[in-house]
């Protein structure tokens, strides 16, 4: 009997799971996994970064935001929610410096609306996708035992939710599982988003015959993770009693420089459009995690190689075609905003 089989229990069908951000990239794949497990799935998504066509038709979609407290309240009042999978977020680490109010409202206050309802309705478990942004810089490989030192408002908001879940467990007994994924890519990713998801940005540029934009010299390293190595673990985690009240890094083990990534993406796309180097921005230079804790509990590890994953995504991208990114219209501070972003962003009227 494998370690995974020993740790896993089978939950009965007839379970309702709420997935926030279920029309988005990671969320829609988690929805698919939950449906395969026999869950009834309710999706809450405001479609600001996701797409209606991403949602499996077997799930029920409610269009709205986690920041709408009355809407969130009504969802829990309407039916018993057994598990919450909170994936909705605006996950642009670098941009978060310039959108503090929007960042904290969306990523922190929205989370509190969900946690309040999870406590009141006695949900069985709250699964939260955090981020390796909570670690900050200078901590590689990143271990769950390390003290988080987030350096941007996005990472700060994610860590605040982690702390609040621990407090809710202590006060109310709300079980939770926290995942810290990193640099996840794959089919259904929003390739039109110009601020995040470097692989999607590269592929969208290549489709248009444009060079891959790199901030700085491209020596910064990341471990890039295909969605197939993340979504099933997140969905099935509630079946693992040893996972409750725990934090897990989840993702690939091998780091690559952004320069190496650009070359691999162009190989997968079958087209060399070159590289455009842009001024460096304020970001963590080296970021990759240790995943031994996840392997110990879930008995599995990343299985999709970078070359294989990039080819899967490239095949999908060629089918859907290039997408035009939407300019972000909620920038609150323009000081030190990277020039390439300044052209895309507009400051709201005051």
Could you characterize the architecture of this molecule?
With 350 residues, the protein is of the alpha/beta class. Helix content is 35%, strand content 16%. The chain has eleven helices and 14 strands. The protein has helices spanning 3-7, 25-36, 69-78, 100-120, 153-172, 198-207, 231-236, 258-269, 292-298, 306-320, 339-342; strands at 16-20, 40-45, 60-63, 83-86, 125-129, 176-181, 184-185, 212-215, 221-223, 225-226, 246-250, 255-257, 275-278, 286-287. Helix 4 packs parallel to helix 5 and helix 8 (258-269) crosses helix 10 (306-320). The termini are far apart. The model has no long low-confidence stretch (mean pLDDT 91).
What average pLDDT do the residues reach? 91
Structural category: alpha/beta
Helix content: 25-40%
- Give start-end ranges of low-pLDDT stretches: none
H/E order of the elements? HEHEEHEHEHEEHEEEHEEHEEHHH
What Rg do the Cα atoms give?
Answer: 19 Å
Number of strands: 14
What proportion of the residues form beta strands (DSSP E)? Answer: 15-25%
Q: State the end-to-end distance.
A: 63 Å
Q: Please, how many helices?
A: 11
Q: Main sheet: which strands, in order across?
A: 3-2-1-4-5-6-11
The major beta sheet can be summarized as: 7 strands, parallel
Molecular shape: globular
């Amino acid at each position: 009997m494998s370690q995974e089989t020993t740790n896993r229990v089978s939950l009965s069908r007839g379970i309702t799971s709420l997935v926030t951000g279920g029309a988005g990239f990671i969320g829609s794949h988690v929805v698919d996994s939950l449906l395969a497990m026999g869950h009834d799935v309710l999706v809450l998504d405001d479609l600001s970064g996701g797409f209606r066509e991403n949602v499996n038709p077997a799930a029920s979609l409610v269009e709205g935001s986690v920041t709408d407290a009355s809407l969130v309240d009504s969802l829990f009042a309407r039916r018993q929610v057994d598990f919450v999978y909170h994936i909705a977020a605006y996950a642009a680490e670098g941009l978060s410096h310039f959108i503090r109010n929007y960042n904290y409202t969306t990523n922190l206050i929205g989370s509190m609306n969900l946690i309040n309802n999870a406590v009141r309705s006695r949900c069985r478990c709250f699964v939260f996708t955090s981020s390796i942004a909570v670690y900050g810089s200078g901590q590689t490989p990143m271990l769950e035992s390390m003290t988080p030192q987030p350096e941007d408002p996005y990472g700060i908001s994610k860590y605040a939710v982690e702390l609040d879940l621990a407090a809710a467990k202590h006060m109310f007994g709300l079980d939770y599982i926290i995942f810290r994924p990193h640099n996840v890519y794959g089919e259904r990713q929003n390739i039109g988003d110009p601020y995040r998801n470097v692989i999607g940005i590269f592929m969208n540029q290549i489709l248009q015959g444009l060079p891959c934009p790199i901030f700085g010299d491209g020596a910064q390293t990341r471990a890039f993770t295909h969605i197939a190595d993340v979504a099933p673990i997140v969905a099935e985690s509630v079946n693992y009693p040893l996972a409750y009240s725990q934090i897990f890094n989840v993702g690939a083990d091998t780091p690559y420089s952004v320069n190496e990534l650009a070359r691999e993406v162009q190989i997968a796309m079958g087209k060399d459009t070159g590289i455009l180097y842009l001024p460096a921005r304020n970001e963590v230079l080296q970021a990759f995690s240790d995943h031994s804790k996840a392997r110990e509990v879930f008995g599995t590890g990343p299985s999709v190689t970078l070359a294989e994953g990039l080819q899967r995504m490239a095949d999908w991208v060629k089918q859907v075609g290039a997408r035009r990114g939407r300019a972000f219209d909620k920038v609150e501070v323009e000081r030190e905003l990277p020039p390439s972003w300044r052209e895309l962003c507009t400051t709201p009227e005051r």
